[in-house]
UniProtKB/TrEMBL annotation:
InterPro entries for this protein: EF-hand-dom_pair, EF_Hand_1_Ca_BS, EF_hand_dom
Transmembrane stretches, start-end: 15-40
Domain EF-hand: start-end pairs: 64-99
Molecular function (Gene Ontology), one example: calcium ion binding
Keywords of the record: Calcium, Membrane, Transmembrane, Transmembrane helix
Classification of source organism: Eukaryota, Sar, Alveolata, Dinophyceae, Suessiales
Name assigned to this protein: EF-hand domain-containing protein
């Protein structure tokens, strides 16, 4: 018993009582720290397991959504050319299964009709599987994501348009410079 040991020791030497008190405080302090460390460690392990479980679940959901979207793309590609026309896209969207798939992917099917024009980056009036998958997966979530996708596609289209204009201007200049060089050769001769 600590109290008896401290009382006996203090009868002979007063400083031993202080030593026992310091030892008691240090021991109590150490036991408290070990107990808190055990609780903190348990909480961290539980949090880590939960985070890993959530990450695994999100990855599984993403893979399942991708499979469903790939299947929807194949089902919608009626003519089998590997692309969805706007007509095929609208028909796919009328399917209750596709509406459920889009809803599970976080996309409102009522606004998905306008999604075709946004996703058709190259302006070909058709979507290949890459445009379809990337666009649908990126546009899920809040309206800000959809606006960002639309802006990205608009910038891409503008870039393609500017590149076409630059190429035609370069061809025009090449022809004009060639004609000018021919005329200079004739004048020089």
């Amino acid at each position: 018993d600590w109290a008896l040991a401290m009382e006996t020791a203090s009868k002979y030497e007063r400083w031993l009582a202080i030593l026992f008190f310091i030892l008691l405080v240090a021991t109590t302090y150490g036991v408290m720290h070990v107990t808190v460390a055990i609780f903190v460690n348990s909480a961290l392990e539980a949090s880590s397991v939960r985070s890993q479980d959530l990450a695994r679940r999100a990855k599984d959901e993403h893979a399942a959504t991708c499979k469903k979207l790939e299947q929807a793309f194949r089902d919608g590609d009626v003519d089998g050319n590997g692309e969805l026309s706007k007509t095929e896209f609208i028909e796919v969207l009328s399917s209750p299964e596709m509406v459920r798939t889009l809803h599970q992917a976080g996309i409102d099917a009522s606004t998905a009709g306008a999604l075709f024009d946004i996703l058709d980056i190259d302006g070909s009036d058709s979507l290949d599987s890459k445009e379809f998958m990337e666009g649908v997966l990126r546009s899920r979530g809040n309206a800000q994501n959809k606006d960002m996708i639309a802006l990205r596609c608009d910038v891409w289209r503008a870039s393609l348009s500017v590149q076409t204009e630059i190429d035609s201007a370069a061809d025009f200049l090449r022809i004009r410079l060639g004609n000018t060089a021919d005329k200079l050769k004739k004048l020089h001769e």
